[in-house]
Each structure stands twice: as structure tokens, then as C-alpha cells.
Amino acid sequence: MKNQQPITLLICALGGEGGGVLSEWLMDTARACGFAAQSTSIPGVAQRTGATTYYVEVFPTPLCELGGKRPVLSLYPVPGNLDALVSSELLETTRQIGNSMSAATRTRVISASNRSFTTQERMQMSDGRTDSATLLEIVRAHSREHHVFDMGEMARSSGTIVSAVMLGAIAGSGLFPFPRAAYEATIRAGGKGTEASLRGFASGFEVLDSQLSQARQVQQLLGDEEVPSSATPSLPADVTALFPPQVHALLVLGHERLLDYQGPAYAARYVKRLQQVLQAERASDPAGAHSFAITLEMTRWLALWMAFDDIVRVADLKSRAQRWARVKGEVKLGDADLLQVYDHFKPGVPEFAAMLPPGLAQRVTQWDRARINRGKDPWALPLKIGTHSVLGMLALRTLASLKWLRPFGSRFQTEQALIDQWLASVVTTTRADWQTGFELAQCGRLIKGYGSTNERGKDNLLHIIEHLATSQNFTSSDERALAIAAARKAALADDAGQALDRTLVQHGVAARPVKAQPIRWVKNPHMSKPR
Fold first, then answer.
1. DSSP label at 380?
2. Does 341 have pLDDT greater than 80?
3. What CATH number did the domain enclosing 112 receive?
4. What angle do CA 82, 155, 183 make, to 5 degrees?
5. Per-residue b/e over 59-73, b at no fewer than 16 CB within 10 Å?
6. Which of 307, 329, 356 is at the close of a domain?
7. Domain residues for 500?
8. 225, 375, 383, 456: which has the highest count of C-beta atoms within 10 A?
9. Cβ atoms of residues 425 and 465 within 8 Å
10. DSSP string, 41-63
């Protein structure tokens, strides 16, 4: 025997990503090439509670050269004894590394860079996402060689599932002694969807083949550091000149978002608001020792708040060509297939009143509130719109075209007044003390979601502005900054607001006022009428 040790591979895939198909492809390819191979699977608990893992061992010497002997292969991976780890999701990659599966001196890690957020990440009131940069650092530190790229986008552009891209990456890495043609022959033998799978296979193969062919040169020139994937997007020249380079990367995203949301005038309004913050920060920090951190925070949260969701925005996003193309890719639509897409909406009085002038909006809202006080449910209009049809798409595009009406609506005017109140507080506070202004700018993350969640976030922000930012109970600016930071963290940690109220009281200011809730009298339909 030329080699007494099998080649070991652990595959990690989420539900519906074809991990089982991938392991079968590898087994079929190994058998077709005359090698002994074995595969076992360990199912995960749920789609984002744990990936399904597939362990593959291939003996690197063909059976015809073993003189009738058969190798004994293992059913389960041994921590630290893997030649390669291939994963369709970055957090799952690091999870297996945390289980000691990868060895820094032996294991080659091939991972998707894309994320599928866990339930725990989505549940957080604040930004609960795990930092991808931290995950990448873990991959780099615990692998002999690592290849991380966007497998999800490659699969979507190829019209296939991510397992085909993963197979191409495995083939391109040269892990197994199989020629490329053998892998492609296995895919073709599968029948349905072979062309799309071959496209995905080719994209994954080319990425690994290209990276490996240049690996030695990259290591020599860059010390094994990753090459930046893209340059910072450009800003209009007149806007670029107004802001320091540290702000440009985020500013271009915010500027483009508001151009798309409402147009050039609204984007210009965004820039003017940020200029006020920048002037205040330069006055407080003339040397730029803090790298314009306040302006950076306001660049992010101001853009998100100004582009708030309403029925016009929802209709616009639902009826875009990119959305239709994404849906077709997700369902793997073939040339001979028919696709029908129905979108369900249930706009109520708040959604319609948002587009009405303030006076009319107030009367409509009062009418709905009176209905609720009489024991009736809030008024709403359930809609089922077939966006695959001409009439359905025309209805959405007509609604999306009403963005010109948005500035006249009560919601737009209310939001702008609240934004200006927050902006003025940040500017004033920053001029007085940089750290306090920075903490108040970060309070923009309280504004998120829609409906009651959005309203609660705005109430919390205004209470912090009106009480902590202006309170005379603090003996120093540092104490005020710490109080604002504590209140922000409490508001994000508890959606009921009890933690925020306790924090406010601890810092000597009033808790949030209790909102009056109407008493609803509801008739019992089972009670008999009095005689």
C-alpha cells in the first residue's frame, strides 16, 4: 500500500442545502474511480440549532492495488484528525472548530462566508449578530489552510443549491485523487437539474483552483493575509469633499439608500443633517483623535431612521425585478415551470393615516380608537395580491409610485420632527462633551422594527433625551455619559421596559410614564339574555 491512512473530510450543511446529496456525489465518484470510501451522517436538531454533518473517508490507494485486501474505515470523525472541513455557513464552521475538529497543523478549511442567522441572534433587541470578522479570525487561527468565499451567491447565480458549489470546491482543492471529469460525470448521472449543478460545481472549482495556484505567491507577498475583495464605493464629488475619509464607506450606503427612498432632495437633506454633526464633533475634537466616531454613528442610524418603512416602501420592494429574480432562484424555476406568487397584506388605520395630511389622519385615527373602545377589533383590510399577474403587479407599482405623496403625510412629518429633535440633542451635547454626544448618537439603534416596536423605541429615545441628556442631577459629564449608555443597554435588553425604568430611577430621573390603556367591554355570546 502506498498510503496506510484514509483521507478524512467533514461536511457541515444546514437543512435543505443538499448535504446528503453532496456526500452521495462523493461516494459515487470514489466508487467510479475504484477507491474504497465510506460515509456516515449525524443529523442536527433543527435548521439553525445545529447543522447536519456528513463524515467521509476515502482510502487513497485504488482497490485494484491492494491485492484483495480491504481497508477498515471509521464511522465517526476524530477531533483534530481531519484533513478537510467543508461548511456551507460561517458560524457552523467555527462551531465545529470549537468542537476541536480542526487542527491548525493539519486541517484545510473550506467555508462559505455567508451567514444564516440563528434564532438567538434574531431574538436580540440590539444587534445580536455574531461578528463575522471574529469568526474569520477563528478560522484562520485553527486551520492549516483556509478558503472562505460566498458560496450562497454562487449557488443563486448558478440556479442551484450550495452543495454543488461545495463539491466544486472539494474537487478544486485536490483533496481526493479524483479527476474533475469524474465529479462532473457523477453530477450528470443524477438526471434532473444537472446543468445548473454543473454551473455551481464549476464556480466552486474555479475559486479553489485559482486560489491554490496563487497561494505561494500570496503567502510570500502578503504574509498569508486576505486580499480585500472590493474597494470602497465612490461618493459624488461634491459630497466627498464635505466629509473626512473615515466616513465615506458608510456615507455612500446611506446616501444611496435615501436617493432610492425619496430622491435627490431627501438625500441632500441627509447630508445637511450630517454636516451639523460633523461641525459639532470638530468643535469638540479638533484634532480628530476619535476618528469622527460620532459622525460615523449618525451616518448609520440617521439613514436607517430617515428611510422608515411604510406601505409605499413595502409595495416598492415587493414589486422590484430583483425580488422576482430572487424568488425564481429560491424555488429553482425551470424553463417549463409556471410560478405564482401571492403576497398577503393587512394594512390598518395607522398605515393609511400615515399617508394622509395630519388633520385628516387625526380624525381617522380617532374614529378607529372609538371603535376599539366599543369593543371592536382595530380596522384592517386583508389583501391577497398575486404579484405574478399583470393586475397584481400594476397595483403594487401604482402604490409604489406614490412616494411623491409621502412628504405630505402625517407619518413623514412626525418622523422628521422626531429626527430633528434627536439631531439637535446630539449636536448640542457633542459641543459640550464628546463622550456624552457619542453615547447619545448610539441611541439611534433604539429605532427599529415597525408598529408597536418602533413606537416603543422612539418613546424610549425621547425619554432619554428629555431626562438624561438635560438632567441637572449629574455632577460631571462622565457621569451623564455613563447614565445614557446604561439606559440604552437596558432598553435594548428588555422590550417590556422594566430594566430601562429601573436604570432611570437609579440615575435619579423619572421612569417612563405609564400609558393609559382603554378598558374594553366585550359581550359574552354564551350568556343568555335576561327575561
1. B
2. yes
3. 3.40.920.10
4. 55
5. bbbebeeeeeeebeb
6. 307
7. 409-520
8. 456
9. yes
10. EE--SSTTT--EEEEEEE-SS-G
